Amino acid sequence: MTFRIRFAKYGVVKFIGHLDVMRYFQKVIRRSELPVSYSKGFNPHQIMSFAQPLGVGITSDGEYMEVDFDDEALFAAAGVTPAGSRDIGNGVTVLLWDKKDAPVLEKYVFDGMSAETTEGFEVLEVSLLPPPKPNVHTEKAMALVKTADYMVSLKDGYSLGFKDEDEFLARFAGFMEQPEIKVVKKSKKNENEVDIKPLVYKSGGPEGFELSGIAHADEYESGQRVFMKLAAGSIANLRPEPVMEAFCGFIGQEYNPHAFQVHRMMLYLG
Fold this sequence. Notes:
- The protein is of the alpha+beta class.
- It has six helices and twelve strands.
């Protein structure tokens, strides 16, 4: 059985990379003694995947991972009686549950993981995914990502020449009114100029954004920040950094990546 887990990454741990995050949660689950499922073969590992891993230096309230647990062992540990079973093909049978028992199982996993997380990480939500159907491929969270909300803040000690957030947002609105926003996309072989404006679905102040997604964001005295809803996922993906680089060019300022703190508020899965 598969659980989708939303978690926050904040504070100094924003500087650790994705592989270290993965190892961290592997240790969290081992310490929790939750009955995680392992892959087969000579080098078994916990069955775990992440949706669009976060870049180094970025904080977030909207990270997702999916973890598979041994259904029989988890039912027993949580004190839940299975409601039946289902053959999903290839000799694999999964246990089923009543809807009323899903919150019990979710709370068991939530409590187990939360008890072992440390400062810099927080488990925010645990959702039990529907059991797989016979001969139907189930997409992982990575393949389901469609959009992402971000908050980009100007750090203290840096200036773009604006007196306050209102002026900052007014200039950003003017920037977004351009018919095109061209940036240079670099690859190993060549460079291409692309228009990123179609990938910015929404931008501006906090209105219309879910502000629970900034609970673990760093705060700065400048108060100058912009919110964005951007394309995300394997088909079309845009990070906030190229947007801010293009904005700096628009206002005649040199882009300094260290001047901005990016916070991912939420990933939206299709």
